[in-house]
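Field log, afternoon session.

UNIT: design team B
ACTIVITY: writing a sequence onto a fixed backbone
BACKBONE:
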């Protein structure tokens, strides 16, 4: 019985000694392993941080560059659409337009425009005509179309012939914008007027 008991205690001691050794070896191994790995992990972590910082800076720089480029393109587009014009004039494409708030005859309206180095309004395409229509609202505005008689063609102030892209209603000699239409009236009728001149 003693032999059996001492054998068991010996096996128990061996197990304890083995587990102690394994525990000590495990701790030693961990320490050595961490000493070898730690500098590499630290370097990798620092490298990862550096890459993240570089990428973040690159993204910010690209974002700023793209926004500046987009803004410049937008400003260039605006400059093409809205010309730089004198105060109280509105620019579109390569022209400036003035919309009066007073009413006058066709002759006095043209005189006012000439004093501004302009003439009664001329539109060269549908985009310009639609632009003028948007600003006229409920009022009638003289424009630069006139003719000698109902048998003669409509002409602009520089004597070029009107292309009749939009028909002009009425049998009179001087044209004006009325809502979305172009109509004609007698020279002494009083209406507001639109002047136009090229953008400088």
């Amino acid at each position: 019985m003693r032999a059996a008991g001492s054998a068991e205690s010996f096996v128990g001691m061996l197990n304890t000694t083995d587990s102690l050794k394994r525990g000590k070896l495990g701790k030693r191994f961990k320490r050595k392993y961490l000493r070898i790995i730690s500098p590499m992990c630290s370097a990798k972590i620092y490298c990862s941080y550096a890459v993240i910082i570089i990428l973040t800076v690159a993204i910010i720089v690209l974002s700023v560059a793209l926004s500046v480029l987009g803004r410049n393109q937008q400003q260039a587009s605006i400059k093409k659409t809205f010309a730089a014009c004198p105060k109280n004039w509105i620019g579109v494409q390569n022209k400036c337009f003035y919309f009066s708030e007073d009413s006058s005859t066709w002759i006095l309206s043209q005189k006012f425009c000439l004093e501004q180095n302009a003439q009664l309004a001329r539109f060269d395409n549908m985009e310009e005509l639609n632009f003028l229509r948007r600003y006229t609202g409920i009022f009638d505005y003289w424009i630069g179309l006139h003719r000698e008689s109902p048998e003669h063609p409509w002409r602009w102030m520089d004597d070029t012939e009107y292309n009749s892209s939009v028909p002009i209603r009425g049998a009179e000699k001087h044209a004006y914008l009325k809502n979305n239409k172009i109509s004609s009236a007698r020279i002494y009728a009083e209406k507001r007027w639109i002047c136009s001149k090229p953008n400088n």
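LOG NOTE: The two ends are 122 Å apart (CA to CA).
NEXT ACTIVITY: expression trials, pending approval
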